[in-house]
Design a protein that fits this description.
Elements lengths: L1 E6 L2 E4 L4 E9 L7 E6 L6 E6 L6 E3 L7 E6 L4 E6 L8 E10 L2 E3 L5 E6 L1
Parallel strand pairs: 2-11
Antiparallel strand pairs: 1-3, 3-8, 4-5, 4-9, 5-6, 7-8, 9-10, 9-11
């Protein structure tokens, strides 16, 4: 099994940037492709993006494409989410997860809150 812990959330003004981290323990994260999702109050969980095991392939949801970047450092068992040009609608709890199958994610972390103010 793998345990995931997200960090790096906080309060930022619109147009600003944040970098979230997701540290894996247990089985090393390099064994897995990973993803990021978010959930805003009263809304369903939204897929943000995916990164392959090597980091050589990434994919993003339309709402964040061109603004967010996922990367990973397998030596540190860490996956990152760099968020630029933040908008108020990016306010949500952000989660990382293991890609356990085609389009499926599991082993969710506890999440980290991101709040973007106008």
């Amino acid at each position: 099994q793998v345990q995931l812990v997200e960090s790096g959330g906080g309060l930022v003004q619109a147009g600003g940037s944040l970098r979230l981290s997701c540290v894996a323990s247990g089985r090393t994260s390099s064994s897995y492709a990973m993803g990021w999702c978010r959930q805003a109050p009263g809304k369903e969980r939204e897929f943000i993006g995916y990164i392959s095991r090597s980091g050589g392939s990434t994919y993003y949801g339309d709402s964040v494409k061109g603004r967010f970047t996922i990367s990973r450092d397998n030596a540190k068992n860490t996956v990152y989410l760099q968020m630029n040009s933040l908008k108020t609608e990016d306010t949500a709890v952000y989660y990382c997860a293991v890609n356990v199958g085609p389009g499926e994610y599991g082993y969710w972390g506890q999440g980290t809150q991101v709040t973007v103010s106008s």
